[in-house]
Amino acid sequence: MALIVPPVGASRRRNTLWLTASVGLLLAVVAYSYLDGQAFRHAAAGAERSRLRIEEANEILSLITSVETGQRGFLLSGEPFYLVEYQAALPKVQRALERFRAMGAADSADWQRLPELVKARLDRMAGTIRMRQQGSISDAVEEVRTGRGKREMDDIREAVARIVAAEGINFRDYSDSAERHGYQTRLLAQAVALLLTGFIWLSGRRINRLALRQEELIENLTVTREREAKGRAALATTLRSIGDAVIATDEQGRVHFMNPVAEALTGWTMEAAEGQPLPEVFRIEEESTGQPAADIAAVVLRDGVTVGLANHTVLQSKAGERIPIDDSAAPIHDDQGKVTGVVLVFRDVTLRRRAQRRLEDSESRYRLLFESNPQPMWVFDNQTLAFLAVNQAAIACYGYSREEFLSMTLREIRPPEDVPHLEEQTRNPALALRTLGPLRHRTKAGVIFFVDVRSHPIQFGDSAGRLVMVTDVTERLRLEEDLRQSQKLEAVGQLAGGIAHDFNNLLTVIEGYGEMLQSEQQVDSPQRVPVQEILVAAQRASSLTRQLLAFSRRQILQPLRLNLNSSVNSTHRMLARLLGEQIRIQSRLERELWQVFADPGQIDQIILNLAVNARDAMERGGTLTLETANVGLRFAEKLGLPAGEYACLSVGDTGHGMDQDIQRRIFEPFFTTKELGRGTGLGLSTVYGIVKQSGGFITVVSDPGQGSTFCVYLPRVEAARAGEPQATPRAAAHKASGECILVVEDDANIRHLVAAMLKGAGYRISEAETPQDALRLLEDPSVACDMLLTDVVLPEIDGLEVAQRAVGLRPGLPVLFMSGYTEHPILRLPGFDRGAPFLQKPFTRDALLGKVSEVLESTDKRPPS
User: Fold this and answer.
1) Cβ(746)–Cβ(791) under 8 Å?
2) How confident is the model at residue 683, as a pLDDT?
3) How far is the C-alpha of 323 from the C-alpha of 314, rounded, in Å?
């Protein structure tokens, strides 16, 4: 059957007609699609703007809420760490407002008003923070209580809510429009698909006819291909010997050659890859994002230039292996200079990339450790001492910005007087690790603090420097100094407690026999004066011992509920005689002064010691002011006292005052600024010990030439406690009527002295040197005993156990303890401290008889059991 080929002219006209019709149809579809697409994009863009406006409005509300939280926390607590959140959120608010304004004005008054409301709120919060930082705590708190901040935040929330509501409506309208246009586009696509199907059917018939003509062309191409095969074989032999991977393409970007290296890297064989588009065989992507990289063959074919691969490009092999590569692609030209293909040359850089990544990771870890370290760190140049790098902790600690640090040297963070020592230390930098300290450093604000410094050499770029880590040891040094001071005080306290027992026993004997000797002298006897001097010296020694015990807080207290005004009034006349006429005494007493729980004698001693200290500071006369006041909870917190209410006793003078160095040491034992022989240095340390033992606090305010004021704060007592001793008038002395008293004392001198004192007052006495002797006497029913007087410290058995066994043998037997040793466990028992009858050595005859009379009197008033 002969093939009938239509005339070329008629075929061309028919093809032109079909092509014109198809192009017209496609242009119409494209035009409609374009207009519909424009409408869709306009609606989508409007919806996106509304969404962004909603997000920005909500972001501003969230950020201003965070700022308010930090500001309110700082106002209420005063803790600086609350400002961290506040300061971190402020720049975010400013950036959010800038983005908000950049979006353009919406059809809403709230859109214009919201930035103004936010700015007004930020200004008010900044003002309250400044008030709080300047110490105006009450004003700052009052600002919170007015509710102005809440009203402003409510206005902001309402404006944001209206904006969100309005933009929500716009978002829905735009979204509906976009959906509608999308639906129309889908319908158009379906219609076009039907039309194209018909067109393809008709075109298929035309293709069958063209296939016959193609066979003719194939014969002509066979010869050309044979010539190309010979050239390709020669080229392939050359390219296979190259160590890099090579891929060549034709002018359509299809692979027609791969050398073995390229086959190994891509995973494609030459047979499988031939004719495939280059992106199918040579699949590359960006290492950082994982997104496909640009088709470099298309770029070379289009522009005819050599193109290098971007850095960090990864080849994905057919098996899925990811291989880092680099190199370039170049055009292939024919004899006429026309681009007929692309040759791509690349190599595996896995090892190089791995080494580079290790280097980057090492640098990243170093920077992370450096910047995130909580200790201040920096690098400085060995030659110039200039800062080369600083971390964030150093910036926060010293107050300089990073730019300021990098323009400074080490000399500028050291006090001027320490700079020569710094230069001496850094003149010959050691190669090994070095630790120095404590050193003095200075912040931007001029605050001096102590640090330990550890450093080691480091090569920083082209500079030989040292990496430094700084540790603030200011608090540690202060604690060490406090520990040394505490150990010193404890040593003196242990010394005082250790000597108290024996010393007080000796003083008891001296005073007791001295009183007995004095009572036997006539008023005009020449021996009376020497005896009086003996008693005065013994009393002074006793007072010194009491001061030591009070200082060490080992003195036995007998606290009562009392009013400090009573103590001031009771000592007023004594102070007038003690201070002399050149010093005027004035009192300002709180009428409704709160009661405290303290030892009246100790309070008198506080007043007398502070008055004597004031007298010595006013050698040419002056004014002594005694003042009492109630200190409430709020004022106590301002003074730095523990939370509570206090009664305050202040003693002020108009003397020469003290500087800060003296004020730091005034409560140390034996510290005095007086010349030798004018003081023991125990007056103020005794006051300190009494106040601390009574559960209170003492402060001093003084300046040279401005006098001094000591303030004693004792806790307020709310209500009377069960079994608490009350300050009652002393009852009349009990008259001895032959009561029998058993005296238990291992020191023969004191035992005989006490027996003599009691016998002289009309009592009958039984003596026991040991606890066993005392208990044997009590077991004998024929031995009368109306009261037990026992020392606390006895051989083998202490006085408390003797008393317990005695009461077991003689129920209801009254017991009176005596001791000069204040460290015995019995003296620290809560019940003993407040209620047990106790007589502190040394004591006088009157004190002994008064205490015995008191114990017997209380026994007589006790109802029978």
Assistant:
1) yes
2) 67
3) 5
Which residues, 6 or more positions from 169, have their beta carbon under 8 angstroms from its beta carbon?
none
d(CA 105, CA 596): 70
d(CA 33, CA 184): 9
The predicted structure's pLDDT at residue 412: 93
pLDDT (0 to 100) of residue 670: 60
| CA–CA dist 450, 415 (Å, integer) | 11
Decide: residue 389, CB within 10 A, 0-12 exposed, 13-18 middle, 19+ buried. buried
Q: Are 713 and 646 in contact (CB under 8 A)?
A: yes
Between CA 829 and CA 234 the distance in angstroms is 112
> Residues 337-388: pLDDT tens digits?
888 888 888 888 888 778 777 877 767 777 777 888 899 999 999 889 999 9
**Do residues 106 and 164 touch, judged by C-beta distance below 8 A?**
no
CA distance 836 to 839: 10
Distance CA 379, CA 387 (A): 6
CA dist., res. 111 & res. 105, Å (int): 7
Average pLDDT over residues 767-779: 92
Question: Interior CA angle at 226 toward 225 and 229, to 5°?
Answer: 85
| Element spanning 68, H or E | helix 8-77
Name the more confident of 213 and 306. Answer: 306
Q: Say whether 589 sits in a helix, a strand or coil.
A: coil
Please check whether residue 12 is in contact with residue 136, taking contact to mean a CB–CB distance below 8 angstroms.
no
Task: Give which of 799, 749, 741 is closest to 770, Cα–Cα.
Answer: 799
Quickly count: other Cβ atoms within 10 Å of residue 74's Cβ. 23
Q: Do 144 and 72 meet the contact criterion of CB atoms below 8 Å apart?
A: yes
Where is 307: in which H helix or E strand?
A: strand 307-308
Short-list 535, 610, 608, CA closest to 574: 608
pTM above 0.85, yes or no: no
The label of the residue with tokens 């199918």 reads 280
Cα gap 147→252, rounded to integer Å: 75
Distance CA 691, CA 712 (A): 7
Residue 442 has pLDDT above 80, yes or no: yes
Give first-to-last CA distance, the chain, whole Å: 151
DSSP state of 698: E
Q: Which residue, among 784, 812, 793, 809, has the nearest Cα to 744 in the 3D structure?
A: 793
Helices (H), 680-768: 683-693, 748-760
Angle at 22 between CA 20 and CA 28, to 5 degrees: 100
Helix orientation angle between 528-551 and 600-617, rounded to the nearest 10 degrees: 100
State the maximum Cα–Cα separation within the chain, in Å, rounded to a whole number.
177
pLDDT(312) > 50: yes
- The type of residue at 493 is G
How many whole angstroms separate alpha carbon 120 and alpha carbon 339? 68
Strand 307-308 to 322-333 pairing: antiparallel
